[in-house]
Amino acid sequence: MRIVVLVKQVPDMERVKFDCEAGRVDRSSAGTEINPFDLNALEAAVSIQEQLGGKIITLSMGPAAAEDALKDTIARGADESVLLSDRRFGGADVKATAKTIAAAIKKLGGADLIFAGIQTVDGDTGQVGPETAGYLDIPHISNVDFISAYSETDITVVSNVMEGSYVKKSSYPVLITVTKDINQPRLPSMKRKLSARKAHIPVWGYEELQDYIREDEIGLQGSATKVKRIEVPPAVTRKGQVWRENVEEAIDGLVEVLKKAKVLEV
Question: Domain spanning 2-217: which CATH class is it, in words?
């Protein structure tokens, strides 16, 4: 069994700054980490591999620095990793990103199971996983927070959508996006951390994928959408008023506030 896990290196969203005019995240303004939902996806893959065997390959599209994130996935249980990195991939929206990832999976020879986080904390679109499945022409199941059964031929999961929980079963190949509720990612051992430091991470650019995707389908030119501007709303602060001397004035003022807020109907 071949299991592919999609991984993205994201900035620390608590500290990152935004270039509002350029319409992009200033990734140099904060440290980076593996997208938290992708760690849940990797843990799901490792748990299945422990029972069924097979190989786990983590796949990431990003700058050269994303190699560190992929080495971390090896420390956490992945067998191999591939980094998709090429200046021509820059500026890709979800469509171009999904097409590029799908091309890489085809080059790998396909996969029985593909896991991805439900979304990334820097984009929150939740579209890349399902779109990748679409370009691979395979089924996908989204919003999975429980895996109830799996075998060499199929998998059964529980998917929560809106107010409903749905039990879904699929044969392989299938792509599954998971929520944070599916598991608790384990920490890597010191031995695996030290071993992962020496891991070789192949880097694939457009030349390695050109048999599976056209150049006009990647990066900015392959994108159907473009962010022109980012607007960061100002922080909302609680407003207050203090009455110290006149109690009657305070009561009248409070009543007026409640009337305007339509808490009191007069």
Answer: alpha beta
